[in-house]
Every structure is written in structure tokens, then in C-alpha cells.
Amino acid sequence: QVQLVESGGGLVQAGGSLRLSCVASGSILKINSMGWYRQAPGKQRELVATITTGGITNSADAVKGRFAISIDNAKNTVHLQMGSLQPEDTAVYYCKAEIINSRAILSGAMEYWGKGTLVTVSS
Q1: Most buried of the four, 35, 41, 92, 101, by CB within 10 Å?
Q2: What per-residue string of b and e applies to 16-43 under the rule 16 or more CB within 10 Å gives b?
């Protein structure tokens, strides 16, 4: 079993900052990448940022220059430092990881998701 546990969500005023964290644990043989997606009411889930264990990053245009993603490979942890938050950033933020499960090696890398953490930005 693989679990992703998120933390750091909450209520923040426009212009403020939050730091989200996500820890992966369980039957992990290898992590290829980790990242963050978000979903606001009435909208589709969208990419925020991803990072490979080699340090290659990708992020949505809407957050470039404001959000920064990082990974701690030793701790199987990904962070999302969010700054200059705006009301349109309000959403449930989900952690995602591409993981090779040690109990399902022949399946290759599979996608795992956290339960999500709510970020609310007030104006």
C-alpha cells in the first residue's frame, strides 16, 4: 500500500504565503516524480507543478514566478511554496506521485493521489 499525506493548507489573506508538504510512504520501490494539482468548484483539476526525482520541474503559467516546487528524495517528500496568493488560487490541492510499487513491479510506474488539502485565499 502506498499513501500520500498532505499538510499545510489553510486560510490566508490575498498577497500571503503558504507552504504545502506531501509525504509518500508504503510499498515504494522507486519514485519517478511528485507534484501538485488543484481543483476549484465547477472547474476541472489542473496542473500546478511537478518535479522529477532528478530535479526537473514543470509548472503552470498561472503560477510561474509565484509558486516553487521542491523535492527531498531522502524523505520522499515534496513541497510547494506558494507566494503572492490570490483568490483565484483557492482550491483543493492534491498531491500526486508516479511510483513503482515494490509489490507490483511488473505494472510499472503507477499514479497515486493524496486526499487533498484546502487552500482558501480571502480578498
Answers
A1: 35
A2: eebebbbbbeeebeebebbbbbbeeeee
